[in-house]
Design brief:
By secondary structure, the chain is an alpha+beta fold. The chain has one domain: Nucleoside Triphosphate Pyrophosphohydrolase. The chain is built from 2 helices and 7 strands; from the N terminus they run ββββαβββα. A hairpin with a 5-residue loop joins strand 5 and strand 6. The longest helix has 13 residues. The protein is globular.
């Protein structure tokens, strides 16, 4: 079975969410807007892996805080994924995109669903419900 563990980050600063757009040449969902993060290496700590992935994708150092949600799905190519979505505290706002993404935006949290793929909408709703208790 092809199974992977993935992590994504809700990076919010001044009520703005950092979102990134996949490259048009990406084999999985090209051109969609999503959250930074990616797959973990075998036995990699999820918080450390998230910090590594975010640094690779957007050049920001973060602290992974509380989990916001856990998702289970099968990609179009058949890979089974369990994904942990974390609240993350950024140590800067200066974004430097890696080669997997073509654009980024700090979008107001309450307007983020207008850009993000619909797959992320329930995660945004959950984050908004929890944001006052998240540290």
């Amino acid at each position: 079975m092809d199974f992977n563990l993935a992590v994504k980050a809700f990076i919010v600063k001044d009520d703005k969410l950092l979102i990134i757009k996949r490259s048009e040449t990406d084999p999985h969902k090209p051109g969609i807007w999503e959250l930074p993060g990616g797959r973990l290496a075998p036995a990699e700590d999820p918080r450390e892996g998230l910090a590594r992935e975010v640094k690779e994708e957007v050049g920001i150092d973060i602290e992974a805080k509380e989990p916001v949600s856990v998702e289970h799905f099968t990609r179009d190519d058949g890979q089974k994924i369990t994904m942990l979505v974390f609240n993350a505290r950024p140590f800067s706002e200066k974004v430097r995109l890696g080669n997997e993404h073509s654009q980024y935006e700090w979008v107001p949290l309450d307007k983020s669903k207008t850009k993000l793929s619909s797959w992320w909408h329930s995660n945004v709703d959950e984050y908004i419900k929890l944001k006052d208790v998240l540290s």
